[in-house]
Amino acid sequence: MTGYFGSYVVVAVLLGVGVAIFAGGLLVNRLLRPDRPTAEKLTTYECGVDPVGEGWAQSQIRYYVFTYLYVVFAVDAVFLFPWATVFADAGFGLTTLVEMFVFLAFIALGILYAWRKRVLAWT
After folding, report:
1. Can you give the residue ranges of every domain in the chain?
2. 43 touches 51 (CB < 8 A)
3. CA Rg, the chain, in Å?
4. In the predicted model, is pLDDT for residue 101 greater than 80?
5. Is 79 exposed, middle or buried (0-12, 13-18, 19+ CB in 10 A)?
6. pLDDT mean across residues, the chain
7. Alpha helices in 33-123 (DSSP H)
8. Where would a tag sit more exposed on the chain, N or C end, judged by fewer CB atoms within 10 A?
9. 52 φψ region: left (φ > 0), alpha (ψ -120 to 50), beta (else)
10. Where do transmembrane segments lie in this chain (predicted)?
11. What's 47's DSSP letter?
12. Contact between residue 106 and residue 73 where contact means Cβ atoms under 8 Å apart
């Protein structure tokens, strides 16, 4: 296979082989597995609790807000570790210190805003 479209043919053949292996595995699994459905096996499993009622449940928005705050602090921690390693290098001390205080000031402003909006109150 030479030429411009030769490499596309190789990719297409490899893609076809991959799809055939995947489909063949699923087909062999379907042919060899035991198939004895019962009413108990076909019920929905909810963490060991029998499903009762409708499938819709209301959750409070504060859970999402706490999740976003966790993500902010996780990103903060991700940036703090590399900063600590660069801070020790020669020539980066004052510059990285000022940059990190600016970054932490933005984080502190976000926390202050969340505190003033009473987002952090768990009531």
Report:
1. 1-35, 50-122
2. yes
3. 28
4. yes
5. middle
6. 82
7. 61-87, 93-116
8. C
9. beta
10. 6-28, 63-84, 90-115
11. T
12. no
Task: Give the span between the Cα atoms of 98 and 112, in whole angstroms.
Answer: 21
d(CA 42, CA 44): 7
pLDDT digits (tens, 9 = 90+) for 26-75: 999 999 999 888 887 887 776 766 667 676 777 777 778 778 888 888 88
Candidates 114, 121, 110; CA nearest to 75 is 110
**Interatomic CA distance for residues 117 and 123, integer angstroms:** 13
CA-wise closest residue to 79 among 56, 113, 46, 102:
102
- Which three-class secondary structure state does DSSP give residue 77? helix
- CB atoms near residue 96 (< 10 Å): 18
